[in-house]
Amino acid sequence: MLFHNDGTGHFTEVSQKAGVSDPRGYFGLGIAWFDYNDDGYPDLYVANDSTANFLYVNQKDGTFKEQAFPLGVAVSEDGAEQGSMGVALGDYDHSGRFSIFVTNFSEEYNAFYHHDGDHFTDVSFKSRTAPSSLPYVGWGDAFLDYDNDGWPDIIVVNGHVYPQLDKVKLGASAGYRQRKLLYHNRGDGGFDEVAAKYGSVLTDERVSRGLAVGDIDDDGGVDVVNQRSRRLAAAPPKRTGGARRLADGESEGDSAEHRRHRRRDHPSPRAALRQRAVVQSGTSYLSQNDMRQHFGLGTGKTVDSVEVLWPDGMTSVQNNVTPNQVLVIRQPSKRGPIGLVRGALSQFAPRQQRELLLLQEVAELLAS
Ligand SMILES: [Ca+2]
Ligand SMILES: [Ca+2]
Ligand SMILES: [Ca+2]
């Protein structure tokens, strides 16, 4: 169902008219709104359970065209329809484009679609995320830079749908309760599954479904909320120093090979850190991430430039921004002088305020 906001406190259901009504009745479980082709109009990805996924490309006239097959994001690399649940978007390689990570059923791998520019390529095996996902039924997933090195990592929560699996074995699948997966981004297109480094909070077996990420305590480290089947959501205890030690390259569990890769991949942290994120409504699986965007800065001491692309196509830029802060950026007014009147309004008595607002309305009418 697509409900169009009329802008008057009312919505109209437009699925058929817009071309997203899914007449074949596929099993949509996860969605992601994002402007995949940067034409200024949001497109819609739908993860369908046991059926091919959809990518509805915005035609800029109120309608969409479903193009998941030609764009390479409908099925697995070998053409299998997968049991898709969660969807996450991330510019994990600093290309400025959003790649898609989709969680799937057990004995299928989680699909990782790299955004190549004009289409997507399945990099699930190339990125080394596929093999570790095979025993698990994946649900919520997210890109998150948990070690603040500037390279988005991936977290996936798992759990089967059949409680009977506590007693019987089903193929290569893990049991009803399943561990989580945490993939550390190596910066070379590859990922290492590192959940065991962060203790039982990630490796204990649970029946997980929803997942949301955000900096709950505003300490600069991104936190994770996991919702379990038939349970209230629970946030894991505050992160220990483990993640920070990893970022500093001092973790005991860090192999020489990992350290070598990190040095090779981050010869110049300033040059490496050009990041992009999208504010999304409705994320992961039945969940909502913090709408504030979190950027790890590695060893960077300052942010050269923060650019915001607003929904109406306007762009605003802030230069030389200090790290380690929650930065609030408001969209600049398109009507410069009138915006100034609004900002200064509180200095006036209520009656004068009303008169000024009236003047402003007249000025806006004249300007338009
Ligand atoms: Ca678009
Ligand atoms: Ca990272
Ligand atoms: Ca935090």
Descriptive notes:
It is built from nine helices and 18 strands. The protein has 368 residues and is of the alpha+beta class. The strands form six sheets. Strands 3-4-5-6 form a four-stranded antiparallel beta sheet. The longest helix has 18 residues, at 350-367. Residues 240-270 have low confidence and may be disordered. One calcium ion binds next to loops.
Q: Please state the CA-atom Rg, rounded to the nearest Å.
A: 23 Å
User: Helicity level, as a percent range?
Assistant: 10-25%
N-to-C SSE series? EEHEEEEHEEEEHEEEEHEEHHHEEHH
Q: Quaternary status of these chains?
A: single chain
- Per DSSP E runs of 2 or more residues, the count of β-strands stands at 18
- Compute the separation of the termini in Å: 36 Å
Sheet with the most strands: spatial strand order:
3-4-5-6
Write the layout of secondary structure elements.
Blueprint: E1 3-5, E2 11-13, H1 15-18, E3 27-34, E4 43-49, E5 54-58, E6 64-66, H2 68-71, E7 87-90, E8 99-102, E9 111-115, E10 120-122, H3 130-133, E11 138-144, E12 153-158, E13 181-185, E14 191-193, H4 200-203, E15 208-214, E16 223-228, H5 242-248, H6 256-265, H7 269-272, E17 303-309, E18 315-321, H8 336-344, H9 350-367
Antiparallel strand pairs: 1-2, 3-4, 4-5, 5-6, 7-8, 8-9, 9-10, 11-12, 12-13, 13-14, 15-16, 17-18
The chain binds calcium ion (3 copies).
Residues 215-217, 219, 221, 223 line the site of one calcium ion.
